Amino acid sequence: MKTPVDRFRFRPYKKPAAGWGALRSVAHAWLDSRQPFKNLRAMLQTNQNGGFDCPGCAWGEAPKEGHIRFCENGAKAVNWEASGRGVDREFFARHSLKDLLAEDDYWLEYQGRLTEPMFYDGEGAHYQPISWDEAFALIASHLKSLETPDQAAFYTSGRASNEAAFLYQLFARAFGTNNLPDCSNMCHEASGVALKQSIGTGKGTVTYEDFEKAEAIFVIGQNPGTNHPRMLEPLSEAVERGAQVVVLNPLRERGLERFQAPQDPVQMLTGGEMALNTAYLRPSLGGDMAAIRGIAKFLFQWQDQADQGESTGPLDLEFIHEHCAGFEDYRAQVEATSWDEIQSFSGLEKDEIERAAHIYCRSNATIICWAMGVTQHRHSVATIQEITNLQLLRGQVGRPGAGLCPVRGHSNVQGDRTMGIDECPSAAFLDALEARFDFSAPRSHGYNVVKTIEAMLAEKIKVFIGLGGNFAQATPDSTRTHSALRNCDLTVQISTKLNRSHLVTGKKALILPCLGRSDIDQQHSGPQAVTVEDSFSMVHASYGQLKPLSPEMRSEPAIIAGIAQAVLGSRPVPWIALAEDYRRIRELIADVIPGFENFEEKLQAPGGFYLQNPAGKRQWNTANEKANFYSHSLPAPLPQEVLTKIGKRGARNADLVLQTLRSHDQYNTTVYGLNDRYRGVKGERHVLFAHLEDIHRLGFADRQKVDIVSLWSDDVERRVSGFTLIAFDIPKGQAAAYYPEANPLVPLESYGLGSYTPTSKYIAIRLEPSTAPERII
Ligand SMILES: Nc1nc2c(c(=O)[nH]1)N[C@H]1C(S)=C(S)[C@@H](COP(=O)(O)OP(=O)(O)OC[C@H]3O[C@@H](n4cnc5c(=O)[nH]c(N)nc54)[C@H](O)[C@@H]3O)O[C@H]1N2
Ligand SMILES: Nc1nc2c(c(=O)[nH]1)N[C@H]1C(S)=C(S)[C@@H](COP(=O)(O)OP(=O)(O)OC[C@H]3O[C@@H](n4cnc5c(=O)[nH]c(N)nc54)[C@H](O)[C@@H]3O)O[C@H]1N2
Ligand SMILES: [Mo]
Is 378 in contact with 763 (CB distance < 8 Å)? Predict the structure, then answer.
């Protein structure tokens, strides 16, 4: 089977984001799904009451009724999941594991939905069919023969529903381990760690309504035009009513520059478009903390001036006095930071920062949003605490139209954490489990993603179970991670689509095909709803709409229950009965997790219910019951930090610093197509964006093929080959390439302090002329 491909082309995109280009792209995804008429129904039910939650991003729904509530990339996600193509036993008989490994990630997922359980015995060349009961028995025999439950790891990707996640963590803990790594470890972990320390809750403090009241919205390290397209609507509404949007992003992302509403026919027909940002700052990679410190420095300076003139300054002294701790230390820290440091670390001029500071001070209701450009750095926790400090200075937490907004990725990644998918659970959570169920929960902390890989390399993990996701490709240091996975005795993937994690296996492997969010989930008691929580802590129900492609697919709760029953019997809960009626799972959630009392009843409200956020009400669940200013010194310039670690080969200078990011045609490791419309790239993903002057400085030419080698203090060679250089509007010294193609370059040991998140946005690299044979497309 062939996947459709275009020839490689690069031509800067001149049109606005969304608009006609988006509609064309939706139509393409829809027609390519093989079941357009069935899927139209699905698209119209996306994010509607009584419909299903979009399996795309975690952006929340506008509270107003009557809108079409999917965006271009949501439509792609729905059509991709609702593919009419199937991957069955004949497919695996036709394709050996070795042949499949030679295919790219795009091809693998394009083959369609996994339709029956498959087993790889580690000896033959092919996956073979296996019955569900045999698969469960195999998992049970492996798990039961472990020396300790900590030799197993239970990974979760953020699409799992609350019901699936709750059951999964309960099973892992009843089995005896907290080894619950999840995609969040690679994503917003730093936000959770930082916010919990600063304001006592790891979640964002804003709701959708706050966006309608904000006077200024800062968007830092985020590309919503591609990754949260529904966010463009409140942003453009904000600009229309005169609010300011300030962007910090080294790239000029089209969705943040110019936007055309795809649901506004007048704008589309007249070609009208709106400039979305009112200030666009392009910092160094990892330079945001210094930029925010600069804004804070202006605030202190202007406060001093106001104090001398006996007028009111920008600081909210009453709020600081009543609610905060650590203010004086922070002031001292800011005063001790020089403008030289701020400019050199941020890569910004003082007057650019001043402009942002003016906007910040004029606004009485400011929301600060951020995503991966902030969280995937070594000092991400410190950066997010700096952002929080800034908001505290002006009392911008816990008031209408203001707050902190980590914009989550996967559609239920926030809910999964709420349900206990957490390798470092709180004692209170474990106590609540023990109070409700008859077992003692393991107390020692488990492995996160990085530690799981390290443990696999050290042969301390024997069984890996993945509830969704693509562990082999989403993780850093691909070559080493692949050998780590191969060290396992058994790898089990509960998945909707074929991906590399099914091919980079342990000694034995299982593929367990599951239903997706758009599929009708029929159980003993009838069709089931599941629940999810969005970035604004709204919990709502989701009802699948489409008949599953094969009767052999099972729901995630049913699969988890099957495994748990085979391993533990009906202890501590009757697993199978729970999976027959998810209301029974929700009753347990209601008993254990604060905020979910009367869960079933609260779900009946249109749009679901709001999980209260104490910090949003100015209740600080920190040890000192205050909102805390955390004072960190600015991190040293990172290139040197990496380079000083370079030992044996001497001090080699990095040519460039690389960030890895998403194209417009992908959902994480799922590649929908080879185009990146807003960045003007067509038909190719192995590209390296760099400044033309850098390309020439390094002795290369635009469009030349190069190998990229990353620098780290060990002797491991990390290289990817055959990337085409594209001269791009990117700050000098920086480069960008797509994830997951560039993941082999991210050293496993390069992770965030306190978060363990791989530094996917900061990799020191060198370029070499390409050693790759010409790829024939
Ligand atoms: N269509 C689609 N939607 C998605 C996803 C997808 O793959 N496809 N993924 C989902 C997931 S799991 C997530 S986490 C989110 C990801 O959403 P984003 O965080 O928007 O994803 P990235 O593509 O990683 O983009 C990071 C942005 O940060 C900028 N950036 C990089 N480094 C820095 C820096 O040091 N400072 C600043 N200020 N900016 C920087 C980049 O230029 C880029 O614009 O999207 C979710 N939604
Ligand atoms: N270099 C680099 N690496 C990164 C990032 C980066 O920016 N740069 N981003 C990181 C981030 S933010 C994240 S969140 C992770 C993502 O890591 P993951 O969540 O592990 O990866 P995905 O690509 O989202 O997983 C895709 C697979 O999930 C399965 N799937 C899809 N829907 C369902 C479902 O409903 N149920 C089940 N059971 N399976 C399903 C399909 O088989 C599909 O192939 O990657 C991280 N890795
Ligand atoms: Mo993510």
Answer: no
